[in-house]
Amino acid sequence: MKRIYINSVGSVSAQKTYENSNFLEEVEYYNANVIKVIDPNYKDYIPPAAARRMAKGIKMSTVSSRTALEEAGLENVDAIMVGTGLGCIGDSAKFVGDIIDNNEQFLTPTRFIQSSHNTVSGQIALAIGCKGYNFTYVNASVSFESCLIDAILQLRNDEAKNILVGGVDEIADHHVKSHQLIQHIKQEAVAAKDLLSSNTKGCVSAEGSNFFVLSDKEQASTYAELVAVKTFNTLTKERLETVAEHFLSDQGLSASEIDMVILGNNGDVDFDGYYNILSEGLFSNTSQLYYKHLSGEFDTAASFGFWLGSKILKSQSIPEAVKLNSIAPDSMKTVLLYNQYRGENHTLILLRRC
Amino acid sequence: MGKGVAITGMGIISAIGNNVEENYESLINSKTGIAKISKIDTIHKDAILVGEVAMTNTAFETQLGLEENSWSRTSLLAVTAAKEAVAQAQIKDINDCRTGLVSGTTVGGMDKSEQYFYDYFESDAAWKYINGLHAGDSTQKIAHQLGLEESFATTISTACSSAANAIMLGARMIKAGELDRVIVGGSDALSKFTINGFKTLMILSDTFNTPFDDHRKGLNLGEAAAFLVLESDDIVERDGKEVLAYVKGYANANDAHHQTASSDNGDGAVLAMEKALKVAGLEPNTVDYVNAHGTATPNNDLSEGRALLRVFKDNVPEFSSTKAFTGHTLAVAGVVEAVFSVLALQNNVVYPNLNFKPLCKNSIYCQKQSLKKKNSM
Questions:
Q1: Domain assignment present for B332
Q2: pLDDT band at residue B367 using 50, 70 and 90 as cut-offs
Q3: Domains of chain A
Q4: Is residue B304 part of a domain?
Q5: I need a labelling partner for A302 at 20 to 30 A (CA). Which of A71, A144, A271, B356 fits?
Q6: Is residue B253 part of a domain?
Q7: In three state form, how does the secondary structure of A3-43 look?
Q8: Do A233 and B110 touch (CB under 8 A)?
């Protein structure tokens, strides 16, 4: 079967990742329950007049998508796919607030237009003049992975050669406050180093935008091979190990052949048990990594995990800050990523060194 | 070679009916679903017309065995239509083969989010709706109601092309052998959010929408849910399924012209139609009818009309827009019109382009107003 390559990355996150030359040499350890990204200098990418009313999700994605395109040496792509849980939720919330506060009067279109979930994929297409396939997936924590599945289909079926995929979500006040009410977001700040032992409900909410060029051709900039992706709308703890083993055996692998697992632990006492099943079971003797203490949680946070796995395989190094256990891998060839959010929408991704 | 993609079930609920049969009856009897808004208290209620689904939330909740005021209307519509589609396809065990679900929506649970936006902070009565804003919520509810487990279930939100894209993704996954069966479609309920959003875009008509008419003033919003069951040849054979139609071709392209408007020359639509024909392996002259997007905005219908001329040249097939019946159902439009198109194929009819007044200045806009029976091929 045709191989799929991750040819470039671009990341705007709560860490200083917007320059691809950096790889978590300096780490920001937050003590928070809401984390915003470390902003690049948007003026280098967006004219100030345009930037003024531009939603944060579009701004972040302008930088990360352009970084990915430049690293891949591309001015255009055959398809653009963006995953987002809530799109530019800040503008949506403001538009709803304006409707109520002003009794449906004096409204302007910008906030409504930017509320459309596909505004980021549309803006990228407009910016580079891409008339190709343009999709936006919006299914909670499988949004980004849906892009990967679609991109693999297109590349394997020769429908496209280079595809820009990304995951983006932004922080908005109403969203945070309302989700704190139902304990989906932590009530109290928690130090990054204590995240997994917080023993409290909910996550540390954050934002970010991570883009990648996937291609059917390997090139000098290539990070890794994207071997397989699978998503599951439901999955019980009892079935998790069996399903993970099946996923690997479909690729001719067993758990012992996996060099590193990247887990999506977010410190929610009610749901991290899923990750513990893998870290204490199937992969107890495997090098285990985690990242949401650095990136925070959002619907497309797994795209940061994908960035991490890609960087590790290319650089053949593991940043100290992401190590969950002390096991050092014998080699750095295969990476398995597992993520879920609140016990739903589980995803498995397999990456391999080129 | 790719495999066939059969449509074995359909479900729909729209302003012109609560199921496939009622929708078809309305279509062939030129019965529009457009009227004044009755279920949303908006200051624009006298300035706009909409295509509302007749049933109340309470009626849906009774029908689905839910407590009163427990779900967003988007989810209520979605589950109702998805169940009809699955019933027609005579699926007894949804997990008896690799089944997926792909749904499109633009507003998700916005109807409830806007209703309780500030109330969340006053009392916990509506907290169940807080996490229902995200677009995947209705998809997860459909999956749960259908008993779909450990499966590929995702949501697409690409504005008015969402459900068309859902059909396309489902078809591609079956063709590639990734899945055996995919439930595809979409759901969007009317909301103040959408009404006011489109109001700011200044493309809402204060009259019955008139697709392709020279004096068209804009669109009427609508709400709907519709789903198709797509199955592989193997499943059709295994279960001895009746096939309603096949998904032969599809494509998605982007105008890259403007965030909310189509290019005047219809570049995106031309690219999409040409690629869809190519995927289907069909020549333009084999097309008997085009169910157009035809929103009745000046911009859309011009762009689309030019695109039709560019693709079909001087041999434009009969076309009509059914938006005058249902209103523009946003994310769902593509699957509503796919259901109507399957019915057109089954019954050999071309639906009337309601509210169109022929001027015949421009020949391609000279469509008949009445239902037309096609000669059988």
A1: yes
A2: low
A3: 4-215 (3.40.47.10), 227-352 (3.40.47.10)
A4: no
A5: A71
A6: no
A7: CEEEEEEEEECCCCCCCCCCCCCCCCCCEECEECCCCCCHH
A8: no
A61 by DSSP, 3-state: which?
helix
| In contact, A181 and B127? CB cutoff 8 Å | yes
| Angle ∠(B187,B43,A107) on CA atoms, nearest 5 | 80
What's the whole-number mean pLDDT along residues B326-330?
Answer: 98
Strands A260-263 and A334-341: parallel
Question: CA–CA distance from B346 to each of B18, B24, B243, B349, B374 (Å)?
Answer: 20, 11, 11, 8, 11
The whole-number average pLDDT for the span A29-34 is: 98
Chain B residues in contact with A344 (beta carbon < 8 A) = 140
**B71-B73-B75-B78 Cα dihedral, nearest 10 degrees:** 150
What local confidence, expressed as pLDDT, does residue B377 receive?
39
- pLDDT per position as a tens digit, A302-338: 999 999 999 999 999 999 999 999 999 999 999 999 9
Question: By residue range, what is the domain housing residue B30?
Answer: 5-248+326-373
CB spacing of A137 vs B156 below 8 angstroms: yes
- What's the CATH number where B361 sits? 3.40.47.10
Q: Give chain B's domain count.
A: 1
A87 contacts on B by Cβ (under 8 Å): 157
Question: Across the interface, do B118 and A99 touch by the CB < 8 Å criterion?
Answer: no
């992401």: which residue's tokens?
A322
Contact in structure between A8 and A69 (CB atoms under 8 Å): yes
> Among A113, A139, A149, whose Cβ lies nearest the Cβ of B139?
A139
Say how far apart CA A259 and CA B359 lie, in whole Å: 71
The mean pLDDT of B25-50, rounded to a whole number, is: 97
Lowest-confidence pick of A282-296, B25-39, B345-359: B345-359
Compute the distance between CA of residue B220 and CA of residue B208 in angstroms, rounded to an integer: 7
Q: What is the pLDDT of residues B203-228, one digit of tens each?
A: 999 999 999 999 999 999 999 999 99
Integer angstrom CA distances of residue B340 from B10, B105, B222, B223: 10, 19, 16, 16
Quote the pLDDT of residue B375. 56
B196/A156 CB distance under 8 A: no
User: Per-residue pLDDT averaged across A75-97, rounded?
Assistant: 97
Q: CB count, 10 Å around CB of B140?
A: 23
Q: Which of B3, B110, B141, B157 to mutate to test the interface with A (most CBs of A within 10 A)?
A: B157
Q: Which residues of chain B make contact with A86, given a CB cutoff of 8 A?
A: 133-135
Which three-class secondary structure state does DSSP give residue B285? Answer: helix
**Interchain contact, A118 vs B110, CB within 8 Å:** no
Looking at the domain assignment, is residue B260 inside a domain?
no
Query: Cβ contacts (< 8 Å) between B169 and chain A: which residues?
Result: 135, 150
Could you tell me which of B3, B11, B1 has the C-alpha nearest to residue B244? B11
- This prediction has a pTM of 0.97
Residues A113-152 pLDDT 10s: 999 999 999 999 999 999 999 999 999 999 999 999 999 9
Distance separating alpha carbons of residues B327 and B322, to the nearest angstrom: 8
Q: SS3 for A331? A: coil
Residue B121 to residue A243, Cβ atoms within 8 A: no
Q: Which residue carries 């797994």 as its tokens?
A: A302
Q: In the structure, what pLDDT confidence band is assigned to residue B179 with cuts at 50, 70 and 90?
A: very high
Q: Considering only alpha carbons, which residue of chain B is nearest residue A78?
A: B253
pLDDT at position A76 over 80:
yes
